[in-house]
Structure formats: structure tokens, C-alpha cells
Write a structure and sequence with these properties.
Layout: H1 2-18, E1 20-25, E2 29-35, E3 41-44, E4 52-56, E5 62-71, E6 76-80, E7 102-107, E8 115-125, E9 135-138, E10 150-153, E11 158-166, E12 169-174, H2 175-190
């Protein structure tokens, strides 16, 4: 039983690492990102990305790219790399999360590569209104460099983007909020607009 559990966690960690990238913003810092779509759309934190960024994939290929959408209020940014079909994240329904659900965080803290920590959902904080500011709170250990990386459930589905630590608890932007952010960005692109690059001012993970 113990061996099967260990093998299962190792396999889960490897799958998550495949969809987690390193993001180096120009003059703003470094962190992680999630391959959200196979065409190279990557989601990260606004306080990690800047107008130009370097993305390093799990196979160590590096790409210079520009931020295509940014929302400092929700602490989200979208970038895109032209790297052919990529392994993309399976996206979970963050509205279905319950307190006590097991979750995992993967990122690149302090120069590490693909570190994984485990915990449980502490609280799902919802706030209605135009800002759409919501958080998944979990007792996973995150550190500088984890920002923008995935928070996933026990099935390997991304249910949040790690953003910061508050009161010793990790806060992640729920996956459903990320989906709305990308939908808004797609709508602006169809109308010929552009995302508003910027850097958030929060206490990053």
C-alpha cells in the first residue's frame, strides 16, 4: 500500500512538472508558470511577469516572449511561446473545492527545479464584485519562486495559481477566475485591443 502511494505521488509530481515552467521577468523577478493551453499559452502571476519575459520549459528550452495580457488586480498574466504543441494542464473546477481536500504545489523556489509540497485546502474565500478577487487558501509550503505555479488537486488537475503567503497560509487564484481572465483576454484580442502590462504590488510567494 505504501509503495503504491509513493509511486502514485511520484507519477503525479512528474506530470505536474511537465506543465510547470520557469518565468524570468525583466527587472521584476522570477517565478513559475503553467502551460494552460497546448498552443503555448502560459499563465503566471502579474507580479512575476513584466513586458518581456524569458520562459524555460521543463525540457530546458528557453524562449523570449512578451506578456499578452495582464491584470494586476487579480495578479494574473498571460504569455505565449511558439514551441509547437506542448503538454498542457488539466484544469479542475475550483468552485467544487472543499475544506480538507488534498492539494499539491509545484514551482521553482530559490532556484530549485520542480519542487513539490503537499497540504490541504484551508479555506476557499469568495468575494463578489467587479474585482473578482477570490482565493484558495491551503497549508502547502510555498516560497519566493513559487508564484505563478500550479496548485493541483489529488487528480492532478490545476485548481489555482499560487500567488502569495498571508498569515502562514498559501493563497492561490482559483482556476475558474483564471479561465475568466483568459476569456477576457481573448475577447480583447478579437476586438483588436491589448492587455495592459503591469506589475502587481503584493507579498509574493
Amino acid at each position: 500500500m505504501h509503495s503504491s502511494l509513493a509511486e502514485g505521488l511520484a507519477g503525479l509530481a512528474e506530470r505536474i512538472r511537465q506543465i510547470t515552467v520557469r518565468v524570468h521577468g525583466r527587472g521584476s523577478g522570477h517565478g513559475s508558470g503553467v502551460i494552460w493551453r497546448p498552443d503555448g499559452h502560459i499563465v503566471t502571476s502579474a507580479h512575476v511577469a513584466s513586458r518581456l519575459a524569458t520562459v524555460v520549459l521543463s525540457d530546458d528550452r528557453a524562449f523570449e516572449t512578451a506578456v499578452i495580457a495582464c491584470d494586476p488586480e487579480r495578479d494574473l498574466a498571460a504569455i505565449k511561446v511558439d514551441a509547437g504543441p506542448l503538454p498542457a494542464a488539466a484544469i479542475g473546477d475550483s468552485d467544487a473545492l472543499r475544506v480538507g481536500d488534498m492539494v499539491f504545489a509545484v514551482g521553482h523556489p530559490f532556484g530549485g527545479t520542480g519542487t513539490l509540497t503537499a497540504g490541504i485546502v484551508h479555506r476557499v474565500r469568495r468575494r463578489d464584485g467587479p474585482s473578482d478577487r477570490r482565493w484558495v487558501e491551503a497549508d502547502v509550503h510555498v516560497a519566493p519562486g513559487n508564484s505563478g505555479g500550479p496548485l493541483v488537486d489529488a487528480h492532478g488537475r490545476v485548481i489555482g495559481i499560487n500567488a502569495m503567503v498571508a498569515g502562514g497560509v498559501a493563497l492561490a487564484v482559483p482556476s475558474n477566475v483564471v479561465e475568466r481572465f483568459l476569456s477576457d483576454a481573448d475577447a480583447r484580442a478579437r476586438l483588436g485591443g491589448a492587455g495592459r502590462p503591469g506589475v502587481g504590488h503584493r507579498r509574493p510567494a
